[in-house]
Amino acid sequence: MKGRHGMKTRYYLAYGSNLSVEQMAFRCPDAKIVGKAILTDWRLVFKTHADIIPAKGWVVPVLVWEISNADEKSLDRYEGFPRYYVKKEFDIIMTDLEGGNPQDITAMAY
Fold first, then answer.
1. DSSP code of 9?
2. Residue of 41, 51, 76, 79 with fewest CB within 10 Å of its CB?
3. What's the rounded Cα separation, in Å, for the pair 48 and 74?
4. Contact 25, 72 (CB under 8 A)
5. 88 band by pLDDT with thresholds 50, 70 and 90
């Protein structure tokens, strides 16, 4: 799938503070919200910061952002990748914000 600039679309799954449109606009000026999804068998936990951990029977609702390479580099710095957070790729079903138009995508989360 090609993004707005002819490159492969990069999707980012946001939870915690990156649900904030204002904070994401500051960190990732190219990012745009493209949908929502549910991570099944994952749980949102709060240690020092929000994190997700594998947990059978739990779900985590996430916002799906389309991000540029520059946005991803900015997020890497903000999230402390790779020392603090790691990245994981998820194969998920994304819907629009109203819950329609489902599509299979691969997206990254920290």
1. P
2. 41
3. 21
4. no
5. very high
Find how far residue 67's CA is from the centre of its chain. Answer: 9
Query: What is the Cα–Cα distance from 32 to 24, expressed in whole angstroms?
Result: 9
Whether 69 and 52 have beta carbons less than 8 Å apart is answered as no
Among candidates 99, 85, 2, which has minimal Cα distance to 108? 85
10 Å CB burial of residue 39 (0-12, 13-18, 19+) is: buried
* CA gap 88, 48 in Å, rounded: 20
At 96, list the tokens: 């629009």
- Give the residue ranges of DSSP H helices in 1-110: 21-27, 69-79
CA distance linking residue 86 with residue 100, whole number of Å: 31
Contact status, residue 38 vs residue 62, Cβ threshold 8 Å: yes
Both tokens of 58, joined, read 């739990």
